[in-house]
Write a structure and sequence with these properties.
Blueprint (H helix, E strand, L loop, with lengths): L2 E5 L1 H5 L1 H12 L3 E6 H13 L5 H14 L4 E2 L16 H10 L3 E3 L8 H4 L5 E3 L1 H11 L1 H14 L7 H10 L3 H9 L2
Parallel strand pairs: 1-2, 1-4, 2-3, 4-5
Length: about 180
């Protein structure tokens, strides 16, 4: 049985990193979770920062929702004000608490100080640490997920080294380095 992990917007922003995380979820390494607030924020940053047209950003989100129909957390809104993490991320913690997540995967560790999550039994980890843990625990399934990711990149074709470079640029350098060393 895989465990529930809430993916923050910044973990989903990079298409390559998001794809890696969700392919690991397809291998049943964890159950991905997100909220409507996270998806709306993702759409805004994909348009504003990545320059994606609105329809392409929405299509990406629609694909995520279709692939993981049980990922969206609902009914967390009443918990937001009670959260004591950074104000802009209270919705993230509220959704994690409501869903019974075991971990929040985010690059913004400082926004979730230990005192804000301890009462809920939650860990807050970077995507790099999260993926590295999955690789340490389930190397065959992580390699299978990455292999499927490479197979999917046909137009243009992506080499393993190119994928690892993209992952490194997306902020998961330890994971990418470990994968590269495990050829």
């Amino acid at each position: 049985m895989s465990f529930p992990a809430l993916l923050d917007t910044n973990a989903l922003f990079s298409a390559t990193l998001s794809d890696t995380l969700l392919r690991c979820a397809e291998e049943e390494l964890f159950n991905p979770l997100w909220s409507l607030d996270i998806l709306q924020e993702l759409q805004r940053v994909l348009i504003r920062k990545a320059g994606l047209p609105a329809d392409k950003a929405q299509r990406r989100i629609n694909r995520m929702q279709a692939a993981f129909p049980t990922a969206q957390v609902k009914g967390y809104e009443s918990l937001i004000q009670a959260m004591v993490c950074d104000a802009k991320d209270r919705h993230v913690l509220a959704a994690a608490v409501k869903a019974g997540a075991q971990v929040i995967v985010t690059f913004n560790l400082r926004d979730f100080p230990p005192s804000s999550v301890a009462a809920f039994g939650l860990d807050v980890v970077t995507p790099d640490s999260f993926l590295q843990d999955q690789l340490d625990l389930h190397p065959d399934r992580v390699h299978r997920a990455v292999g499927k990711q490479l197979e999917a990149y046909q137009h243009p074709r992506l080499t393993r080294d190119e994928l690892l470079n993209r992952l490194e640029r997306a902020g998961v350098s330890v994971f990418a380095e470990t994968l590269g060393a495990e050829r």
